């Protein structure tokens, strides 16, 4: 009897784990099928969920006090998940940057700042620098939109401006699969570049701060619809097991002659 219960639980757990690792499919699938380009990630690793704290407090390396940073409250757009799930070398930093940028934009004049007027001559990149190390990755400029200096006119309604919260935005996470993801340390500085033909802008952020942002997107735990039935099944099993043991003991004491009867689901063969 108990073996069947254990089997049942095992099957249940196997089935649910299968479901979890499948994740919310279909978000990126169509694109993958049309473009068999290995820069695109599939949704098979899509198992992160966003848990924003009210603010992020961070103390930089040479600072003496914590500074409060704004956090985006809402459902993050698909590209943030895509960076975080990419497992690419810069995935965590770019997911962190995207969330920091959304937080900054929502903290000031949200009705304008979440629209970004994309320019054809702009190029953006992020450099990761410490004393021994230098690496650079390109990124779409809208991911760092709140760091780009804007003229007052650019806040007028513009039908070509990009809504940085749009779920339709697709990005290439620039996967560099040489088997190593970047280790983020407190010594590193992340330098954001916004280069146009006439102008170059630079912003410096501690990479560890971006990591804090990225970590507000956590691997999803086992959901309630999985653990509740499993726990109930386990409790029932233990209950039935103990019940049978008790029954046996009591009957043994009371009526040792009458063996071999079946009472309920406890068979007594001794
Ligand atoms: C922007 O300019 C800086 C400084 O010249 C350079 O290091 C960086 O690679 C440039 N980024 C892009 C995307 O062109
Ligand atoms: C992977 O590439 C980065 C630069 O893109 C390099 O610093 C790192 O050492 C490489 N790792 C391996 C294992 O080749």
UniProtKB/TrEMBL annotation:
Residues 1-18 form the signal peptide. The chain crosses the membrane at residues 224-246. Keywords: Membrane, Signal, Transmembrane, Transmembrane helix. It comes from the Eukaryota. This is Uncharacterized protein. It comes from Euphydryas editha (Edith's checkerspot).
